Amino acid sequence: MFTTRRLIIVATAVAVLSGCASPNPYDNQGQADGGSQGMSKTAKYGGLGALAGALAGAAIDHNNRGKGALIGAAVVGASAAGYGYYADQQEKKLRASMANTGVEVQRQGDQIKLIMPGNITFATDSANIAPSFYQPLNNLANSLKEFNQNQIEIVGYTDSTGSRQHNMDLSQRRAQSVATYLTSQGVSGANLSARGAGPDNPIASNGDVNGRAQNRRVEVNLKAIPGQQYGGQQQQPGTVQQYP
User: Fold this and answer.
1) Using one digit for the tens of pLDDT, what is the confidence trace for 2-41?
2) Beta partners for 104?
3) Which residues pair with 215 in a beta bridge?
4) Of these four, 103, 165, 205, 206, which has the most CB atoms within 10 Å of its CB?
């Protein structure tokens, strides 16, 4: 009979190997985190989830730790791998729909981040969305309706020019403008939040023009909904209303 330790190792290995069957084509584009190159996010999440589940299952089932480890690995590993697959598919479609729009799509572990530069989204010192940016936002709305099991956080940022209070207010209004537009296009507001961070968390130096331009941005962060069970199926997007 296998020992508990061997069962945990076997359960984890199965989850990792099953995930390796579907490599993420974007892992070699500089967006991958750590050592995940060559391994799909599905594999990584499934393996880590299986290990955590195996340990939890072994701890819970005191009478049969080996059985508990296998059950825990199967349940938790499948859930984690399910979100990995879900995020892989959404990332792929977002990269296609955001190509040549100026919006950068990043994958950071279990989170998808879209960076929208301020120079293409808003006029200077304004929270009114530039008409030319409606189409990229429509593309994003389509994705958020198709992949409608995301926690969506919209964060506005500014450079350090001007007073902090003014920048906090402006960044909040810009984040809210994006959120309002997305919900007007049919995106559910149930798991959506918007906030302004002003000059905090700069991604470049505020000491020169180019750096300040990079810091003026809106970020849309997509992550798993806590407690949500993820599978491989998503709802199809409906018709998107176009703004004039």
Assistant:
1) 455 555 555 555 444 444 444 554 443 434 333 344 445 5
2) 115
3) none
4) 103
| Contacts (Cβ under 8 Å, ≥6 apart) of 100 | none
Residues pairing with 222 in the sheet: 112, 152
Helix (H, G, I), strand (E, B) or coil at 39: coil
pLDDT in tens, 139-151: 999 999 999 999 9
Residue 170, Cβ density class (10 Å: 0-12 exposed, 13-18 middle, ≥19 buried): buried
pTM: predicted TM-score of the whole model, two decimal places: 0.69
Residues listed for the chain: 244
Token pair listed for 232: 């491989």
121 neighbors 218 (Cβ within 8 angstroms): yes
- CA dist., res. 49 & res. 35, Å (int): 17
* Plot region of 102 (φ>0 → left; ψ -120 to 50 → alpha; else → beta): left
CA distance 146 to 27: 23
Domains of the chain are: 4-94 (no CATH), 104-224 (3.30.1330.60)
